[in-house]
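Task: fold both queries, return tokens.
Query 1:
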Amino acid sequence: MVLKKRVIAVISTVVSVIALFFCATTFEAARADMVDVSNNNGSMTVANFQDMYNNYGVKAIVTKISEGTSFKDSTAAGNIANAQAAGLYINGYHYARYNSVSSAIAEADYAGKLAQEDGLPAGAVLATDVESSEQSSGSEAQNDADNKAFMTEVAKYGYRSTIYTMGS
């Protein structure tokens, strides 16, 4: 009888500790207001975007539209439509390969036309993603001139623009 009471006491203690751990501890994922999506993520559904909104606080997306003057992101139009259907704010970006003012303008024209075709709303941001080797080999003054030319040209398509990059 004493052994039975001890076993019951040990099991009760273990169950109490497990219950305390799982019930009293709250785990939360990092909150993000905006997420970057592209062909690297595959096609995103309305449900994917609703889950991001409801469970992670995502309010907006930035989807890849294009790269250089020849790459069109095949998931952009679907991502734009599905994120809009989920109630998210939509932005786009162009992965820049330019290294001169003239090539920046050519890429901006390519990105602007594709953004319109993909359904990026007028007034949305169409950012230039500046992190390729073409920019890292240029001077700061040249990069500034190129980026300014890109952003000026994108405005002709009805989009606002900014520079999107990483720390390096």
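Query 1 returned. Query 2:
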Amino acid sequence: MLYLKNIVAALILPPLGPLMLVALGLLLLGWLPRIGRVVAWSGIAVGLAMITPASVGTLLEPLEDIPAVEPASLAGADAIVILSGGLRDYAPEYGGSTVNRITLERVRYGARLARQSGLPVLVSGGTPSRQANARGPGEAQLMKQVLEEDFRVPVKWVEGRSLDTRQNADFSAQLLLPQGVKRVVLVTHAAHMHRSVEAFEHAGLAVIPAPTAFFGGPGKDDNLLPKLPGINTAYAGGYAAHEWVGILAYRLSR
């Protein structure tokens, strides 16, 4: 089911999704020329929208409306939960594999909050290929390694079975609730926070959102969301589209 979900997402999300519309439109030109032109131009329009700052900002704004956490609010929490975002399989400079840049951004901020608050840390995230082939440490284990070796922050719990956000929440709750942990500081990307909070609250945990790595918003980093279309804006647009599809899929399947 996970692989099917990933295939469907790849087909409808940028960059492949708009290209598929263009290809479909071109195929229709011989039979239904008017519809074919509309479909093809729609694909071009969607593709341009996904790399244009104004439209990407419109997608991001409601996703990233949860503000950065105030240090004082950490006092009411029982633990910090950091969600994984993938790994880098080929990292010979680290002796094999390591966390990717998405996970590293979350780990870095989680480490900062852990030092500020003294709260225990749970890392959450599995890796389908690693579970299937037992080829080495999964994402959560790599997160623990980075936190302890590079940031000198101990990790108390490692949840390494989850394959999506819903499982992040469910499996983390299974570890934490029996130990009396009911309120967590949740660390993930700002654009991923709404979906994550919904999943963790549904799993029975109270959540203090601690978003990181904002793509947009006031005072945005122009290197991430520049004024002209570019590769960084395309990355932000693809991330935002992925989140909107994820939110829809989560609510329809709940």
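Both queries returned. Flag for query 2: The first strand starts at residue 79 and ends at 83.
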